[in-house]
């Protein structure tokens, strides 16, 4: 049976111009990007867009009928909020299709200064229920909210059934402890976190020590993991470290793993999700191409929910680029209620 | 075109190890300089200036050492530890350069070893990812 619901937008990450083009070329409906500064949550050295590449990328996507979103999803820091305001001004001047914001003060600035600019509530805004989403809608006119990765499928359905704001959910990518907008673990070790500086585990605090038997990952000198000779490695974040707790050394917070919603695409379409987002602006054009291609094919096939089955080449493509070599439906599937 | 699975035979690596590394390193530095000059490699040279790099092709048994000086690259003849070293087999380097394989994936799988200054490593990785090969003759070999 073909669903009466429209197919969700496939929203793909771009950390560089080639990644943006790869997303568009392989079937993304929408791409999202950030500027080269701390106004977005992937503020890594050498990543992201300047004015020239942003303009070229937006032209490339718009010429092919795709949309472009700009993430300004960190919290403006009290000492100087000018960069955040400038980022909003730049988004308006570039002609992006929407900005993804987390900071309520910045939403207020955006709506007053650029009333025509479409606003999306970022996952970093940590809105998990209709009341929170409606507050942002009533105050600032947000048109879409990205849900944190903590809700079950039923809870997502309940949010969608009770709001006129579009709902975007995560479909693929590395998972963390998922207290989006509220995680201070990186700050605990380095003084910098995604919400304040746009980066989790800043690279200048990371040291990889290659020994005869082990690879040690240190974050600001704190040993956060030790990999055996052929163990898969992961991102050097505190939440994915192995720690000695009560005489046992294990993943005390979160095991490195990737979210993969392929098996429940028909359900996500049926409950009326407006957009499915892929994580990974820090990843290469190769990742963006492979993930976008697999999800495009899968989404198109999921239109016919009765005949849908997950193809092995999609799983292979997504499995290969996954962090931690295991994939999960995450919070979407909580059969124990 | 896909890079096939291969590991260079150890006999070849034994031979290559005994050859001087300077000529290939010179070719690499000259190639990088051409890419900077033509505006294809969008490098912020101020971030790289004075830093020393080593590319170690494990199965070939060769190490290419070069450094960034001012607005260009040159062969590095010093024997000091480089600021950044990338180590992988020839096939994995080829896959990474042709964008068949994501560098983070190679790193997770322990096929790409990054040693030294982690932030410099990220700058270089992101620099390679940001090269827009479309419009250059290389484009037809690229997977993404």
From TrEMBL, chain A:
[4Fe-4S] cluster binds at residues 176, 183, 200, 239. Signal peptide: none annotated. It comes from the Bacteria. Keywords: 4Fe-4S, Hydrolase, Iron, Iron-sulfur, Metal-binding, Protease, Ubiquinone biosynthesis. Pfam families: Peptidase_U32. PROSITE patterns: PEPTIDASE_U32. Pathway: Cofactor biosynthesis; ubiquinone biosynthesis. Required for O(2)-independent ubiquinone (coenzyme Q) biosynthesis. Together with UbiV, is essential for the C6-hydroxylation reaction in the oxygen-independent ubiquinone biosynthesis pathway. HAMAP family: UbiU. Forms a heterodimer with UbiV. This is Ubiquinone biosynthesis protein UbiU.
Automatic annotation (TrEMBL), chain B:
It comes from the Bacteria. GO terms for biological process: ubiquinone biosynthetic process. Gene3D superfamilies: SCP2 sterol-binding domain. Required for O(2)-independent ubiquinone (coenzyme Q) biosynthesis. Likely functions as an accessory factor. This is Ubiquinone biosynthesis accessory factor UbiT. Keywords: Ubiquinone biosynthesis. Pathway: Cofactor biosynthesis; ubiquinone biosynthesis. It comes from Paludibacterium purpuratum. InterPro entries: SCP2_sterol-bd_dom, SCP2_sterol-bd_dom_sf, UbiT. Residues 33-129 form the SCP2 domain. Belongs to the UbiT family. The lineage of its organism: Bacteria, Pseudomonadati, Pseudomonadota, Betaproteobacteria, Neisseriales. Signal peptide: none annotated.
């Amino acid at each position: 049976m073909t669903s009466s619901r429209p197919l969700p937008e496939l929203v793909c990450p771009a950390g560089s111009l080639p990644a943006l083009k790869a997303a568009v070329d392989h079937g993304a409906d929408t791409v999202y990007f950030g500027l080269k500064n701390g106004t977005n949550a992937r503020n890594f050295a050498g990543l992201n867009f300047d004015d020239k590449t942003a303009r070229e990328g937006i032209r490339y996507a718009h010429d092919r009928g795709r949309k472009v979103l700009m993430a300004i999803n960190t919290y403006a820091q009290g000492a100087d909020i000018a960069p955040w305001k400038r980022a909003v001004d730049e988004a308006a001047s570039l002609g992006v299709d929407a900005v993804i914001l987390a900071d309520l003060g910045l939403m207020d600035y955006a709506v007053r200064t650029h009333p025509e600019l479409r606003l999306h509530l970022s996952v970093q805004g940590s809105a998990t229920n209709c009341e929170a989403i409606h507050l942002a809608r009533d105050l600032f006119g947000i048109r879409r909210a990205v849900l944190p990765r903590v809700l079950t499928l039923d809870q997502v359905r309940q949010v969608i059934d009770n709001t006129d704001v579009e709902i975007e959910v995560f479909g693929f990518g590395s998972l963390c402890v998922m207290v989006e907008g509220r995680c201070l673990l990186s700050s605990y070790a380095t003084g910098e976190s995604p919400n304040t500086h746009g980066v989790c585990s800043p690279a200048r605090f990371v040291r990889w020590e290659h020994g005869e038997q082990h690879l040690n990952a240190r974050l600001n000198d704190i040993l956060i993991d030790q990999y055996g000779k052929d163990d898969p490695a992961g991102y050097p974040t505190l939440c994915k470290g192995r720690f000695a707790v009560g005489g046992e050394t294990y993943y005390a917070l979160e095991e490195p793993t990737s979210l993969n919603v392929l098996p429940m695409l028909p359900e996500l379409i049926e409950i009326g999700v407006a957009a499915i987002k892929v994580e990974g602006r820090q990843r290469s054009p190769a990742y963006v191409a492979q993930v976008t291609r697999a999800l495009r094919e899968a989404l198109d096939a999921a239109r016919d929910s009765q005949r849908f089955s997950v193809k092995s080449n999609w799983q292979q493509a997504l499995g290969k680029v996954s962090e931690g070599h295991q994939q999960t439906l995450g919070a979407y599937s909580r059969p124990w209620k | 075109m896909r890079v096939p699975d291969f590991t260079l035979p150890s006999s070849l690596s034994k031979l290559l190890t005994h050859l001087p590394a300077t000529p290939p390193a010179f070719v690499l530095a000259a190639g990088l300089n051409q890419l900077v000059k033509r505006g294809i490699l969008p490098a912020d040279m101020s971030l790289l200036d004075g830093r020393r790099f080593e590319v170690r092709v494990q199965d070939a048994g060769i190490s290419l050492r070069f450094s960034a000086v001012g607005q260009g690259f040159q062969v590095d003849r010093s024997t000091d530890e480089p600021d950044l070293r990338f180590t992988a087999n020839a096939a994995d380097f080829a896959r990474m350069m042709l964008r068949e394989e994501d560098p983070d994936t190679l790193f997770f799988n322990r096929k790409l070893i990054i040693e030294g200054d982690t932030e410099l490593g990220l700058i270089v990785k992101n620099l390679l990812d940001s090269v827009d090969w479309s419009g250059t003759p290389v484009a037809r070999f690229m997977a993404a």
